[in-house]
Design a protein that fits this description.
2 domains, Sig_transdc_resp-reg_C-effctor, WH-like_DNA-bd_sf, mainly alpha, Tscrpt_reg_LuxR_C, rod-shaped, DNA binding, transmembrane
Length: 147
């Protein structure tokens, strides 16, 4: 934005100087060189921003793909634990960090139903609570990183 403003300023200043004929050749040459330098920097900045935009698009695509793969792995694990479709939905919401009340509201059921489903999920998975359940899936991801 600043480079665009500066470039525009120098264009108007150069044109104004040429029309008035007041300033000398040296002054016009300096302004023209500054204008060219700003224009070159502006060109490369625009290219860089476009490049970053493309990289962001690629990374968003990768993130969406990886999120889909993680969801697929989670659903496969839920199937191995013999979770019902309702329990699978509740398990996903527990892992996301929603409270029992929020899950009940989202699923249009009573909080007591969600608590019962959560108990079944923990029993079938062999974990004591939501933290261990979430850790089951995060642990594999964390093993990819070296600390």
């Amino acid at each position: 934005m600043v480079l665009t403003f500066a470039s525009s300023f120098f264009i108007f200043d150069i044109v104004g100087d040429l029309i008035s004929g007041e300033d000398g050749f040296f002054h016009l040459t300096i302004e023209l060189l500054v204008f060219i330098a700003i224009s070159i920097v502006l060109y490369f900045e625009i290219r860089h921003v476009r490049s970053l935009g493309k990289e962001i698009k690629i990374e968003k695509s990768k993130t969406a793909r990886l999120a889909g793969e993680l969801l697929s792995v989670m659903k496969e694990q839920f199937s191995q634990w013999s979770l019902t479709p309702s329990e699978s939905d509740v398990a996903l919401l527990l892992i996301k960090g929603l409270s029992m009340k929020e899950i009940a509201l989202a699923r249009h059921v009573k909080e007591k139903t969600v608590r019962s489903q959560a108990t079944h999920i923990y029993s079938k998975s062999g974990y004591a609570g939501r933290h261990e359940l979430a850790a089951h899936f995060i642990e594999d991801l964390m093993n990819e990183f070296e600390f």
